[in-house]
Specification:
Radius of gyration: 28 Å
Strand content: under 5%
CATH class of the domain at 468-627: Mainly Alpha
Helix content: 55-70%
Strand order of the largest sheet: 1-2
Distance between the termini: 34 Å
Shape: globular
Length: 642
């Protein structure tokens, strides 16, 4: 592996080893609070690219001493590293907590990455000069169904005391909290209601633990607003388990609820129905009438209309979205499709033309609607940076830190450094940076930089194909299309062999441990153990066998097989309709956000890789194909696939 090859132009190998050793020692000293050890390591790192991190560790441990001079000196290094802005945020929180408002005011305007805690501290400061404006903004933050930091509490309390946050706002926040299952937050809000409206928090507990029992055992005739809110929460929870059961319970109690509450219920029942592919979803959404639907409800009303092939409803649902949501690629594409069916071809073509300029899944579909060939608009070789441009990128401290941090497997810190360095680069510089990353086998960072270009593109950098020689034997053995395998790997791991997901998927092909053990048994791999999953040859062998298995099970349809690879074969089957369905609609209506995004990217990647590999490429629509009805027989595989 030629990792850090380019950095050796700047630092000799022995020096790099010392830098890494000293940095890891400084990091550990910071973690355990060993100031003496940290100071020693920081001195040794003084003239290295990682010095900002050592200084950050020192200042963070000494923050309580208010070492103003070194802190201010460090914060003057604004553009040097994301660690400077990270420390600025931590320092501002310290100042806000101690109400050091003059210092806070001097520094807050320089902060690039803020959060709710700091926003509320800034509003506390603003109250001194513009109380009405500060409390009005605090009300906007109140109307969010999520827990807020302690720095917001005095603002909320004062806004309630002055009536800026009224009784309706209190009920609204409670409803928003329950919509995202933040029951603890909802309970904390109850005491802020007028005394006559306060209801027992225990009812929310019962509704959370057993919504069906709550609905069966509770009386709703002449019930107060709190019980109605709790009932709607219980119904929402129950509808996620079974829309049919929730609807059956609703019919027995509906007369006790206001028209507004009834419309609200049907908006959530429609969402639950759409997510479970219940054919009544559109009927339930219609029953919601003029209730204000949130962005997720509108998205799934549109998806329910797609499955029903109700193109007028597809158009109407997209039209009901806010402009920001309508501008998303998905809704521009499906709006164009709806307009085309409805006979408004000129408007449809205008949407497709604009969208076709984007190199992504919906851009590809839009391009095909206009009759373009697969991979239209791409070239395999774009602008080629010269040696001087490569050296200029390598001289950037953020790039040097990225290479060093990745060499220590500190990918999170390294990716932040890389993103920081790429912020203001032009297309030529981005392609040079992508080339630097690719030469050092940081394929995820190479893709990151190449994907950012606006006018100049290099699709070999956007869609790299490492390990091709190692892949060939397994590709031929299993009869897999190379472009599809690379499309999947690019989405799974960005070709990072040691990466591990939050749920445990590991390696180049992101295989789950249970799946890896199952495959190892199927192929008769002797002596398989968990640690082998990170070995390149083992990971490829296991992953390609599993790809072959799910592909064979789903009649070699890459959309179904990709969904099965990500979410499991059982779910991929369950998401089909009773009747044959356009593949693009199947993908659009996958209820798991992660899997839906995953399948779109895998298939989009596959089209680009096919073009780069010189294959006779199918269109994206051809790859999506038609998804058979759920009663259609799949190839029988007598294996218990995990």
């Amino acid at each position: 592996m030629k990792f850090l090859l380019l950095l050796l132009l700047v630092q000799p190998l022995c020096a790099l080893a010392d830098i890494e050793s000293d940095f890891l020692a400084a990091r550990e000293a910071s973690r355990v609070g060993n100031m003496a050890r940290l100071d020693t390591m920081a001195e040794r790192l003084k003239d290295t690219p990682l010095e900002p991190y050592a200084t950050y560790y020192q200042l963070r441990l000494r923050m309580s001493t208010r070492a103003t001079v070194p802190i201010k000196a460090f914060l003057q290094r604004t553009s040097e590293s994301p660690i400077v802005d990270q420390f600025r945020g931590e320092w501002l929180k310290f100042l806000g907590e101690h109400e050091s408002w003059e210092e806070f005011a001097d520094e807050y305007s320089r902060l690039l990455n803020t959060d709710d805690e700091l926003v509320c501290y800034s509003l506390q400061l603003r109250r001194k000069s513009d109380e009405a404006g500060a409390l009005a903004q605090a009300r906007n933050m109140w109307l969010r169904g999520e827990e807020m930091p302690d720095s917001c509490t005095p603002l909320f309390d004062e806004a309630i005391r002055q009536g800026v946050i009224g009784e309706a706002d209190i009920w609204q926040r409670m409803r928003l909290a329950l919509e995202v299952n933040k029951v603890t937050l909802a309970k904390q809000i109850i005491p802020k209601l007028p005394k006559a409206q306060i209801f027992p928090a225990a009812e929310l507990t019962v509704a959370e633990r057993n919504p069906r029992r709550y609905l069966e055992k509770t009386k709703f005739q002449n019930a107060g607003k709190g019980r109605h809110l709790t009932a709607l929460y219980a119904l929402q929870r129950l509808s996620k388990q079974s829309p049919q059961i929730a609807y059956a319970h609703w019919e027995t109690i509906a007369n006790n609820f206001s028209e507004e509450e009834q419309r609200y219920f049907f908006g959530w029942l429609g969402l639950a129905g759409a997510l479970s592919h219940d054919e009544r979803a559109l009927t339930w959404f219609a029953a919601a009438g003029d209730a204000v639907l949130n962005s997720r409800q509108l998205a799934w009303r549109t998806r329910a209309a797609l499955r029903a092939q109700n193109w007028h409803e597809v158009w109407a649902s997209i039209e009901a979205m806010a402009p920001e949501q309508q501008s998303e690629g998905a809704w521009r594409y499906w709006k164009g499709r709806a307009l085309k069916v409805l006979g408004r071809s000129v408007e449809a073509e205008a949407l497709f033309v604009e969208l076709s300029r984007e190199f992504n899944y919906y851009g590809q579909l839009a391009s095909e609607e206009l009759g373009s060939a697969p991979g239209a608009g791409m070239s395999s070789v774009g602008y080629q940076p010269g040696d001087d441009e490569i050296e200029a990128i390598l001289s950037m401290p953020t790039v040097q830190r990225t290479l060093l941090l990745y060499s220590m497997n500190l990918r999170s810190e390294g990716s932040r450094e890389w993103a920081w360095g790429m912020r203001n680069l032009n297309d030529k510089q981005l392609l040079a940076a992508a080339e630097v990353a690719q030469r050092n086998e940081l394929y995820d960072r190479s893709i990151n930089a190449a994907d950012r270009t606006v006018q100049l593109h290099d699709f070999n950098l956007r869609y790299p194909a490492p390990y091709r020689e190692a892949m060939q034997e397994n590709l031929h053995k299993h009869g897999l299309e190379e472009a599809w395998v690379y499309g999947l790997m690019r989405q799974e791991s960005r070709f990072a062999t040691k990466v591990k997901s939050e749920v445990g998927a590991a390696g180049l092909m992101q295989i789950m441990p249970d799946t890896a053990r199952w495959v190892a048994r199927q192929i008769g791999m002797k002596g398989y153990r968990k640690g082998l999953i990170h070995q390149l040859d083992v990971n490829i062998k296991l992953g390609t066998y599993y790809m072959k298995t799910v592909s064979h099970q789903f009649e070699d349809n890459p959309a179904l097989a990709s969904a099965a690879y990500n979410a499991g074969p059982t779910r991929a089957r369950q998401w089909r309709s009773a009747k044959p369905m356009e593949g693009a609609i199947y993908v659009e209506t996958i209820p798991f956000d992660e899997t839906r995004h995953y399948v779109r990217h895998v298939l989009s990647n596959t089209v680009y890789y096919a073009k780069l590999f010189g294959e006779t490429s199918q269109t994206l629509k051809q790859r999506l194909g038609t998804i058979d009805g759920r009663d259609a027989k799949n190839r029988k595989i007598n294996l218990d696939i995990p």
